[in-house]
Amino acid sequence: MTTPQTVLTPADAAAPGNLAAQLAGLAERRGWSRRAAFHQGHRTWTHGEVHALAARAATVLAGHGVRPGDRVLLALPDGIAWVTAFLATARLGAVAVLVNPELPAADHAFMAADTKAVLCVTGPGLEERFTGRPSLGADQLLALTAAAGPTLSHPVDGHAPLYVQYTSGTTGRPKGAVHTHSDPKTYHDLIGRRLLRITEDDVTLSVSKLYFAYGFGNALVFPLFSGSSAVLVDRRPTPAAVDELVARHRVTLLYSVPSAYAALVADRGSGHETCFASVRAAVSAGEGLPEQLGERVAELLGAPVLEQIGSTEAGHAFCANSFGHNHPGTVGRPVPGFEVELRDHAGRPVPDGTEGELWVRGPTVTPGYLNRPEESERTLVGGWLATHDRAVHEPDGAFRHLGRADDMEMVGGITVSPLEVEAVLRTHPAVKEVAVAAVTDGTGASRLRAFVVPVTRAPEGLKDDLLRLARERLAAFKVPRSVSLVPSLPRTPTGKLRRHLVRRGAW
Fold first, then answer.
1. 167 to each of 153, 312, 472, how far by Cα in Å?
2. Is residue 156 very low, low, confident or very high in pLDDT (cuts 50, 70, 90)?
3. Under 8 Å CB-to-CB from 323, ≥6 apart: which residues?
4. In the chain, which segments carry CATH 3.30.300.30?
5. What pLDDT score was predicted for residue 161?
6. How far apart are CA 458 and CA 167, in angstroms?
7. What does DSSP assign to residue 349?
8. Does domain 10-181 have CATH number 3.40.50.12780?
9. CATH 3.40.50.12780-classified regions of the chain
10. Under CATH, which number does the domain 408-502 receive?
11. Long-range contacts: 455-462, Cβ < 8 Å, 24+?
């Protein structure tokens, strides 16, 4: 079979700000056209094939009415259709709206209306979600692309909007953060190339999906800017699937979230497993990685675990550990090019060693939320982003994450950090996951309760053991009044704990 070559024309070369043109030109100049870019199932697409597909898919989208500046909603699982639709949208100078295909129908309807999407490209079973709005199924897009000719890239500058990503909505209705054509290259230059040292020989597997800020950088941006490849999986892989994919594709970089790492190490013997022999590093983000869990993951993989922190608004990571400096239990130092400050509730800087809220300023922080001027004004002050994450600055320059500002629990008029209690309970070998919250009882009183997911079937007396452990290590007012054993904890699709549901005592 003849491998299609990258479609690069004089018009593309004249549009250096357009991300799709940048990437197509880069693949051509670096000789990556025949190198693997994406693996899905038992099929591999080269960098040349990907850019050729995108150029033809742009013709299909234009035929469905997409024009420069229009918004195209992508409700797709990870796969070559997602990559093709995104790059085709970028090529037209339109704006991609990246949404989780597993969201409820009401959320999809809200996002389509909020962005005034002119076209919705959908995954299987979602065609009826966008009735009354032009839509195109993923299979239909790929079928039409096969017979289409290429479209030239539309010239834009680097500050033009490229995509909109919605926040996870843990504290209210999701908000659309806008990012530009210049942002992806910055993600790669500052994080992928500089901190993770990604080369064209790397193979990525990201448990976090393309429609999330973390997964977008991991599995799309880094491979396309480095000439490397990524394994795409249309649903969140089980631990057994991770084992198989890593072994089959010789994955070198594994990206995941703490809850998925906890599942990966559960019910295994200690020590490095041979299926992970190719892994040179694992990256964790999404929420805090307990230090003990990080140690178990490193032992299992036989590779360092690099924790980082980012946000939808920042685009990717703004603090990260690296090969040059890895401080377990922290989210690392500020990413080069970013400034990070700790401030009090009034927005004033706090002294070193004092807990505060993280404020971030850097090259990829969103210019604002779509259609939310008041929210933008509250969250983005003088170019600084209020993350609402709590942290403390370590002597070596790293930041230790202490949870969200809205995670604190009030019990009997005393403020308690649930993370401190959870860290103690998690040391018990029978505990897989734990969440602690102040739950209102029938009398209206607020009581601290621990919700525990056991590693296996709960051993006899586990609840009493955990309460005893808490009494030994914590002040009396921090000891939970009760322990409930549960099969799972409520989490967002990104793996973040939904504490507002835990506080209800049921989900």
1. 29, 6, 39
2. very high
3. 195, 196, 197, 281, 304, 306
4. 408-502
5. 97
6. 35
7. B
8. yes
9. 10-181, 184-404
10. 3.30.300.30
11. 455/266, 455/267, 455/429, 455/430, 455/431, 456/267, 456/430, 458/430, 458/485, 459/430, 462/428, 462/430
Q: pLDDT tier at 113 (50, 70, 90 boundaries)?
A: very high
Q: What is the pTM of this model?
A: 0.83
Question: Which of 39, 32, 37 minimizes the C-alpha distance to 8?
Answer: 32
C-alpha torsion sign, points 79, 81, 84, 87: negative
**pLDDT at residue 224, as a whole number:** 98
Q: What percent of the chain has pLDDT over 90?
A: 71
- 50-89 tens-digit pLDDT: 999 999 999 999 999 999 999 999 999 999 999 999 999 9
Distance from C-alpha of 288 to C-alpha of 332, rounded to nearest angstrom: 12
pLDDT at residue 2, rounded to an integer: 36
- Do residues 408 and 421 make contact, with C-beta atoms less than 8 angstroms apart? no
Alpha-carbon gap, residue 494 to 312, rounded angstroms: 11
- 391 and 358 Cβ atoms separated by less than 8 Å: yes
* Domain 184-404 listed as CATH 3.90.1010.10: no
d(C-alpha 489, C-alpha 491), whole Å: 6
pLDDT of residue 445: 64
